[in-house]
Amino acid sequence: QVQLVESGGGLVQAGGSLRLSCAASGSIFSINAMDWYRQVPGKQRELVATITRGGNTNYEDSVKGRLTISRDNAKNTVYLQMNSLKPEDTAVYFCAISALTTTGWGRYWGQGTQVTVSS
């Protein structure tokens, strides 16, 4: 079984910074893509940033230049450094990974962490 534990969310003023972490544990042989999504009430969950095992990254347009995704393959952990935060970044942030376990490749999600940006 794979577990993802997120941390680092909270309340911050506009222009401030937060760093989210997501650590994966369990019977994991390999992790391919690691992603961060966010969701606000009444809207679909949206992909914010993704990083491949080799370190290639991709971002949603509205966060480019402000959010940075990174990973530590030795720790099975993905990070999201969030700078110059705006009120519209307020959401529940979820990490997701594609991982190879004893049952094959699967998609796994974290429980979500709230990020609130005040104006």
Note the beta-strand portion.
over 45%
Summed up, the helix count is: 0
Which series of helices and strands comes N to C? EEEEEEEEEEE
Helix content: under 10%
Task: Look at the structure and give the mean pLDDT.
Answer: 97
Category from helices, strands and their pairing: mainly beta
Low-pLDDT sequence parts: none
DSSP strand tally = 11
- Largest sheet, strands/sense/barrel: 7 strands, mixed
Shape: globular
Radius of gyration: 14 Å
Distance between the termini: 40 Å
Please give the structural blueprint.
Elements: E1 2-7, E2 10-13, E3 18-26, E4 28-39, E5 46-51, E6 57-59, E7 67-72, E8 77-82, E9 91-101, E10 104-109, E11 113-118
Parallel strand pairs: 2-11
Antiparallel strand pairs: 1-3, 3-8, 4-5, 4-9, 5-6, 7-8, 9-10, 9-11
Descriptive account of the structure:
The protein is an all-beta fold and 119 residues long. It contains no helices and 11 strands. The protein has strands at residues 2-7, 10-13, 18-26, 28-39, 46-51, 57-59, 67-72, 77-82, 91-101, 104-109, 113-118. Strands 2, 4, 5, 6, 9, 10 and 11 form a 7-stranded mixed sheet that branches. A 4-stranded antiparallel sheet has the order 1-3-8-7, with no helix packed on it. A hairpin with a 6-residue loop joins strand 4 (28-39) and strand 5 (46-51).
